[in-house]
Design a protein that fits this description.
periplasm, 146 residues, Flagellar_FlgA, two-stranded antiparallel ribbon, five-stranded mixed barrel, mainly beta, Flagella basal body P-ring formation protein FlgA, SH3 type barrels, Type Iii Antifreeze Protein Isoform Hplc 12, cilium, 2 domains, signal
């Protein structure tokens, strides 16, 4: 048992920080699952080091088998698809206006999204706050803020 402890003490910390690589072709828009990644012995800057960093995220680009899974190539899974009818909400003090619109792109929670108002045919910018709901105007939270 003591020899096992000595092995962990003598191994440099960087050797324990393996990068994750793809086990299969992960296409853009695929959601990463536990079987899609495996630890690899080489440390690659910018690459994920633990499965919990990437599982449930969506690939923004194609990631080929054996290639490092870079955190910059992933993002939150889309909750709104292009051309989906969404509900837009505008809040200003006690005033709240609800309207329907068509999403002009795919988007995940917190992503900026352009929506075409179905009644006026005007395009407005908003932020996805939940599946099928986009905050527009002054009710839209700051992008990147919590």
């Amino acid at each position: 048992m003591k020899w096992l402890l000595m092995v962990f003490i003598l191994i440099p910390p960087m050797a324990l920080a393996d990068s994750l690589v793809a086990t299969r072709l992960i296409r853009a828009t695929d959601v990463i699952t536990s079987g899609d990644v495996v630890a690899h012995g080489a440390r690659v800057p910018g690459a994920a080091t633990a499965p919990d960093q990437v599982i449930g995220l969506e690939a923004r680009v194609a990631i080929y088998p054996g290639r490092p899974v870079r955190l910059s190539d992933l993002g939150p899974a889309a909750v709104i698809e292009r051309n989906e009818i969404v509900r837009m909400v505008y809040r200003q003090g006690p005033l709240m206006i609800l309207s329907e619109g068509r999403a002009l792109a795919r988007a995940g929670l917190g992503d900026a999204l352009t929506v075409m108002n179905l009644a006026s045919r005007q395009s407005v910018q908003g932020v996805v706050t939940s599946a099928g709901l986009v905050a527009v105007g002054t009710s839209a939270p700051a992008i990147g803020g919590n």
